[in-house]
Design a protein that fits this description.
single chain; alpha/beta; 8 strands; binds phosphoenolpyruvate
């Protein structure tokens, strides 16, 4: 059985004090959390206050990005070993804002994925099509290329610590969530892709989560789908109440209760 995963991507939001307050709220509200893996992804500067506020909680700590080298002359960057040292256990790689705003390509993302796994971080690999790619019927081609190139050359041990987040770019931050049916079809496609790239047991074990305008109101229908194993949540993760409701719904429907 795949343990559902809910991630809260705080993006470039919250001061350190606000991040600590939100983390403290989650620690309180998600006390006793079982059978659902929950991680929050603060901005780098807020990792330490969030870590302190989450101390003793089941809520894990993640980073929104990392560099592909472990150390060196890379001004402004943060590496996997630095994140491990700061108590981080998860890293987002290939978020659409990094692909389409910062300009990262599949090769960069592949290197970051391997760097994260080298440091023992669980990777949330984000993939998803732009609106024009969807309109032109290229969703599967785009997603196939993103998944294949990111996982190219990875070992079974590296793949073991990877989750795939299907995040259609047109759904991120727009309030336009994918229908459960559409999301299920693409998740099923991704799982079959992993079956081809790796093998059956890897595909059956890999968590494929949905991202894009997830709210407490729409998570129930999404999580009811066979191949949807959780969610990556942006806007709704900035309020403890909304995020907690999302986690509780997933725990009730697919986990062991929270
Ligand atoms: C995200 O940034 O990964 C995301 C899914 O954002 P939102 O929930 O705000 O659409």
């Amino acid at each position: 059985m795949r343990v559902p995963f809910i991630g809260g991507n705080w993006k470039m939001n919250l001061t350190r004090a606000q991040a600590a307050e939100l983390a403290a709220g989650l620690r309180r509200d998600l006390n006793g959390l079982r059978q659902v893996e929950v991680a929050v992804f603060p901005a780098f500067l807020s990792i330490e206050p969030a870590r302190a506020a989450l101390d003793g909680s089941a809520v894990r700590l993640g980073a929104q990005d990392l560099h592909w080298e472990d150390q060196g002359a890379f001004t402004g960057e943060v590496s996997g070993p630095m994140l491990r040292d700061a108590g981080v256990g998860h890293a987002i790689v290939g978020h659409s804002e990094r692909r389409h705003v910062i300009g990262e390509n599949n090769e960069t993302i592949r290197k970051k994925l391997r760097a994260a796994r080298r440091s023992g971080l669980t990777v949330v690999l984000c993939v998803g099509e732009l609106l024009e790619e969807k309109s032109q019927g290229f969703t599967k081609e785009v997603v196939e290329k993103q998944v294949t190139q990111a996982l190219e050359g990875t070992s079974p041990q590296e793949r073991e610590g990877v989750l795939i987040a299907y995040e259609p770019v047109w759904a991120i931050g727009t309030g336009k969530v994918a229908t459960a049916d559409y999301a299920q079809k693409i998740h099923h496609f991704i799982r079959n892709l992993v079956r081809r790239i790796a093998d059956g047991p890897t595909a059956d074990a890999m968590r494929v989560i949905y991202g894009g305008s997830v709210t407490p109101e729409n998570i129930g229908e999404l999580i009811a789908q066979e191949d949807i194993d959780g969610a990556l949540v942006g806007g709704a993760s900035l309020k403890a109440d909304a995020f907690t409701r999302i986690v509780r719904t997933v725990a009730e429907r697919k986990g062991g209760g929270a």
